[in-house]
Amino acid sequence: MIRRIEFVQHLFCLLVLLSYVRTDQGIEESWSWSEEDIAVVEQCRQDMVSLEEKMRIADSFTQQGNEFSLQGMHHRAIVKWEIATRCHNESNVPWNNMANSFLTLGNLSAATAAAEISFSIRADHMSSTTLGNAYRAHKMYERAEKTFLAGVKYCLDNSDRHEHPFWSLAMLYWDQGDYIEFLRYAKLGLDHISRVECVESTEEEGACQVPDFEIDLMRRVYEASMDLGLFVAGHGMYEEARSHLEWAEFVAETYPAEGLNLSHASWHLECVKCAVEGSKRVGPCASEVGTCRARWEDTNGRYLRMMAVRAMGCEWRHREQDVRDLEKIMQSPNMTALLNHTTEFYFECEKGRVCGAGAQPPLHMWGLPMSLESVLIMGKVQPLQLVDRMLVDGPPPQWAYPTWSPNIGTVLRIGLVSSDLLRDHPVGNMMRHVLHLHDLSRMDVTVFLIHESQRFAASRVENENVLGEVKFRMIGRGPHVTRFWDAKESVEGADIVNTAGICILFDLIGYTADHRQDIFALRPAPVQVHYHGYMGSTGAPWIQYYVADRCCTLLPAHPPLPSSSSLTFPVLGIRWIAPPEHANFFSEKLALMPECFLGPSHRLSFQVSRIVAAPTMTVYT
User: Fold this and answer.
1) pTM to 2 decimal places
2) Three-state SS for 354?
3) 152-165: string of b/e by CB count within 10 Å (b at 16+)?
4) CA-to-CA distance for 441 and 444, rounded, in angstroms?
5) Which residues, other chains included, contact 5 with Cβ-Cβ below 8 Å and sequence gap of 6+?
6) For residues 248 and 229, is the Cβ–Cβ distance under 8 A?
7) Tell me: the pLDDT tens digits for 509-527?
8) Torsion 85-90-91-95 (CA) sign
9) DSSP result, 143-201
């Protein structure tokens, strides 16, 4: 262990030096040691110096570093802490302090290295919290969770009163939309709070001082408790609802912060009690239980609308309720409005926060049992959202109409919009080997790329033979999924397609990540087709055709019934990607390929000649 620590320390020193080189502060100001510092380090290296003396010197330099840190002089603080580690390397305190200063300076790599050393020396509440937060900043969520849990275990095993690992873990779950685990560890953190318990006082000096981070977390506890309480109350789970609402009431009573509505929590709690006791109960809300139930069963509730996150994360604890709510939403005449709150869906985003599920709720919802009709309904919601969010600054350009028609001439200009074509993705792995099969004497093919990295991939030597003479144009990622569509960005992207004179524009994204349906909504091409990217109807009026196939897949036509006496084999039947009888579940016209609609991958290239020679597709309306 000591050798490992020494090796990591040498590596860390290199990171320290590089971090200073990349800062505005000069090395002579931040990195140089005084002659006295050097003498102290040399003294610590002497065998005759006792361990107690080395620890005393290390503590002294640790304290000096702490003082510099409090003054905002983090570079000097790091030097003092580094000297402390030279004198006594069995304490994780200076390493942990260095990690926090590096985080303040924005040097995540150096912070993580220092935090890992601190954690390797001693996995306590302090080192686990710092390292877990560093992993979280790196978006290494599984490592962050395991590290925070190690800190939680340390506190529980040693009866150590420190709330930080509990609350850091709670915030990790909050960012992932897991209210249940968030509340669990937030409450455990309250049981291990390290500060002196607040006592009411009329003296200003004796007033309770609650840290800002604690108030911020308690606001989230209140929100999660209210959201979960109303959700489970709407499903008749009154005891669980009472527990959540009592917590919300407790937080609102204990923490005098904005947004904590005590009367709101108390009113719903009284309603739950009324609902449990029925007509036997006489109270303020006894005559208003019907009003309460209407609010509890509101399908526009925040926790309910986060079902997409639960489905994506395989969170099944409320799966039965989610299935019922999804059916309720599908039957609601106001479902368009209900699904239009995309900023409330969080799933994987910058700064460790989860987001993006709102950009593609249909795809995420497929983790729940859905009918083809529901898929179509949810598909149709997306175009309505786009129309609401874009072109708010004025009318669309004159070419953004379905009647626009380019001069085709002798060359058919084809365009493909893709965010996955030149990366390791199912769409890219298939479509890359289709591009060079086009007859470029009769066709002009342009691929419109979303990511800048795709431009570099297109220029790589190994892709030359695959891509052939296909053209590439950048249209960019477009507006972020958590903010409103920018009319200017949409028009600029569509204008790139339009000026290229594209006759047939293929969508290879659908409503998956980084889609550009805002461009298709402007109809920059006279014929727009969805192909190979989204296994369901787009519901978009600007997509005329949906390419699918009659390719057979052997699946159980009727699932076998369980039998205790013998095994029963299912009767195998044929399932199509989009059989003609399902045409009414697509807003687009079905263009069915005679064989598999997928292009050949490099492993299936021997089938190229067979696919190219296939007969004409059939269109169903």
Assistant:
1) 0.71
2) coil
3) bebbeeeeeebbbb
4) 8
5) 89, 117, 120, 121
6) yes
7) 888 777 888 888 888 898 9
8) positive
9) HHHHHHHHHHHHHHHHT----HHHHHHHHHHHHTT-HHHHHHHHHHHHHT--SPPP---
